Amino acid sequence: MPPRADDPVVNGELEDTSALVDMALSHPEECRDQLRALLKTQHSRNASSAIWQALAIAERELGNIDTARRYLRRAIRMADASESPNRRADVRATLAVTLSLLGRSTIALDLFDSAAQLATGLTAARVEMRRATALWDAGRNDQALKALHRCVPVLRRNGDDLWEARALLTRAAIQADGGAPGRANTSLERALVLFRRNGQHLEVARAWHDLGWAAYRSGHVVRALELLARAADAYRAASVREPAVAIDQSRVLRAAGLFADAERHALEALEHAYKINESPGMRASAELTVAEAALAGGRAEMAMSHATRATRLYRVSGNTWGEMRGRLIALQSRWIIHHEAGRVLADVIQLAD
Fold first, then answer.
1. Angle at 332 between CA 327 and CA 336, to 5 degrees
2. For 187-196, how does the pLDDT look when each residue is reduced to its tens digit (9 = 90+)?
3. Which of 8, 84, 197, 294 has the most beta carbons within 10 angstroms of its beta carbon?
């Protein structure tokens, strides 16, 4: 990997531990060897903790969740020995993000509370930003927005472009969920500028991805497909397989009536989700997307099979809304297959209750 202008190592000493996170979030595949080499030259507990944390983030971005969790436990042990409260807070926040991605929202939010008690200054704002993302993942959008209102001014005041951009991605997702795609687009355009300015290639891909979804929510299907294709190319260039972009492509294609293409993208997402051992929540989302595409294309038996698996996975990850959606698709499929009007109606009433 070519050296960055803001190289975190100066005269053989690790000067900027936060830059390691940026490296891991920009080129996770390429930076792993550089980080392992750095471990051999840095002997302080503070530096070693930061390197293991960055390695964990790189592994997480590449889909190796179990490895990431193992590295983060090591990073926490070293941080606790370093006696730096902000170091201890930062690595705990990273573990909390990872647990949130696995659907373990309650444990993740408890860990964020622990991190917040340790953090001060800019680190506290970065912890709060990640906590906002976990709150959004848990469906607690109002609390997530309040957390973002607290941290974004601090990040902006300190010129922390990258963490401001990450906060804007989360804010845009909440704005899109709340039916304000125009405001979401404004947040995403600003995030994209900040990521591109700082050479964060993987995070640029995420911004393109979110812009594509915002375009779809605004009713611009062709533009959405163009942006999602650009995001998919950018993910591949960063050596990252991201099932979520294929899931969103499938949803947009289904809305456009292109059911065969929608099913193809959904099956691609499903294959990747299992191949890279994604979280139960992501596997559930892929299963449900296959079910929805199959049902739209008239393949009810296939839809019922995938919807049933999605329901089980959503139950494991604690996503009640996803579980209900999976059950509904399964009921619709069963109706088409068997025309079991009375039984299906009873199940629908039970689901509504």
1. 145
2. 999 999 999 9
3. 294
Other CB atoms within 10 Å distance of the CB of residue 322:
21
Residue type, position 338, single letter: H
CATH architecture under which domain 246-353 falls = Alpha Horseshoe (1.25)
Long-range contacts at 329-332 (CB < 8 A, ≥ 24 apart): 329/288, 329/291, 329/292, 329/295, 329/303, 329/304, 330/291, 330/303, 330/304, 332/295, 332/300, 332/303
Residue type at position 134: A
Are 1-83 and 246-353 in the same CATH fold?
yes
- 338-352 pLDDT, tens digit per residue, is 775 555 454 544 555
CA separation for the pair 224, 247 (Å, rounded): 13
Whole-number Å distance between alpha carbons of 127 and 130:
5
Instruction: Tell me the domain boundaries of the chain.
Output: 1-83, 246-353
Tokens 């840095």 correspond to what residue? Answer: 42
Helix (H, G, I), strand (E, B) or coil at 10: strand
Percent of the chain scored above 70 by pLDDT? 91
Outline where 17-140 has alpha helix (H).
18-26, 28-39, 45-61, 65-82, 85-101, 105-118, 121-137
**Per CATH, which fold does 1-83 belong to?**
1.25.40
* Inter-residue contact 316 to 307 (CB < 8 Å): no
Non-local (6+) Cβ contacts of 23 within 8 A are: 1, 4, 8, 31, 34, 35, 54
Contact in structure between 306 and 300 (CB atoms under 8 Å): no
As beta bridge partners, residue 14 has 9
Contact 303, 329 (CB under 8 A): yes
What is the pLDDT of the chain when averaged over all its residues?
87
